[in-house]
């Protein structure tokens, strides 16, 4: 992650003669690739979507209307901003943007377990990677551990405004890590 930017996709090779490119999405929100959406690239280009075909995973950008100009975009990474993401990506109940969860403090009852460093994606579940609170590390517990991001089983409540996550059964995970 780069300041206020989130990696959301990578552009593949040009497909056909009309400037379409293969799109490899790294986001849970493919709906953000709609016509008119603007993304920045790792080469500091601003690209505006002119067409997106989700069934074929193809995208086309304004001013890239043929295969030769589109080829110049091959292997570039697309980035969105936090603001764009909040605007175009709609969340359901108990869903949160990863960038909002990072740096949240994690508590079980009144005991601070640590702070969210990153989110790890595994096939069955996502996991919160926690940097263990220094006080607990001094007692011989591991410096880092994972909590399954499963509501009601491990995660009770997330408050983005106060940057806190209340959990259960997670001290046990830490002690057995």
Overview of this protein structure:
- 15% of the residues lie in helices and 42% in strands.
- It has 5 helices and 12 strands.
- The strands form 2 sheets. It has a 6-stranded antiparallel β-barrel.
- With 177 residues, it is mainly beta.
- The protein has helices at 67-71, 82-88, 98-101, 134-137, 170-175, and strands spanning 5-15, 20-25, 38-41, 46-53, 58-61, 77-81, 105-108, 111-121, 126-132, 144-148, 155-159, 164-167.
- It has 2 domains: 5-88, Beta Barrel (Elongation Factor Tu (Ef-tu), domain 3); 98-175, SH3 type barrels.
- The model has no long low-confidence stretch (mean pLDDT 92).
Fold blueprint:
Layout: E1 5-15, E2 20-25, E3 38-41, E4 46-53, E5 58-61, H1 67-71, E6 77-81, H2 82-88, H3 98-101, E7 105-108, E8 111-121, E9 126-132, H4 134-137, E10 144-148, E11 155-159, E12 164-167, H5 170-175
